[in-house]
Design a protein that fits this description.
It is a single chain. This protein has about 90 residues and is of the alpha+beta class. It has one domain. It has 2 helices and 5 strands, in the order βαββαββ. A hairpin with a 2-residue loop joins strand 2 and strand 3. The radius of gyration is 13 Å and the shape is globular. The chain starts with a strand and ends with a strand.
């Protein structure tokens, strides 16, 4: 990621929203997951760990990539965090 402006936790919120419908949801996640982000120079490296069966793996990867490619998320306080997906 590049150009992160706002709360880095929004990256995980975007992933959870893509996989579960919203970052605040009832019940367990369909695909258990954890999003880690760490600064590296002017960029942020995002790693998403998830548990999915072989039949769901491609779908989960696509959902995660698409969510991060959007480049923004409005948080619970109404503040928009923005970023740019590099790869």
């Amino acid at each position: 990621m590049a150009g992160l402006v706002g709360d880095p936790a929004a990256l995980g919120g975007a992933v959870t929203t893509a996989l579960c419908g919203h970052w605040e949801h009832d019940g367990p996640c369909r695909w258990e997951h954890f999003t880690d982000s760490r600064p590296e120079g002017d960029e942020v490296v995002v790693t998403v760990y998830f548990e999915a069966g072989v039949e769901d793996e491609e779908q989960v990867r696509r959902l995660v990539r698409d969510a991060l490619a959007v480049g923004s998320l409005v948080g619970p306080d109404g503040t928009t965090t923005t970023w740019r997906l590099l790869d």
